[in-house]
Specification:
Low-confidence stretches: none
Function: Essential subunit of the Sec protein translocation channel SecYEG. Clamps together the 2 halves of SecY. May contact the channel plug during translocation.
Number of strands: 0
Keywords: Cell membrane, Membrane, Protein transport, Translocation, Transmembrane, Transmembrane helix, Transport
Subcellular location: Cell membrane; Membrane
Transmembrane segments: 43-64
Structural class: mainly alpha
Protein name: Protein translocase subunit SecE
Strand content: under 5%
Length: 82
Amino acid sequence: MSDSKAVRRERGHDAEKRTGPATFYRQVVAELRKVVWPTQEQLVTYFLVVMVFVLFMIGIVSLLDLGFGKLVFWVFSGGSTQ
């Protein structure tokens, strides 16, 4: 074990840094006010880009699954095509 002060923590040290629920809520609201929210046009664009990407990935995974499935059946069936 290390005797470094950076590793050890004294009891009660964390209690000084804790904030109450009201302070936490005020800080959350203050941070959310800093957020730059997307416009409706940007939101629709982002949604469409994500949907196209997800559908593309579904297609790739489906084709790989089909291909590997057929390969496994071919290998375990003795290589015969029926």
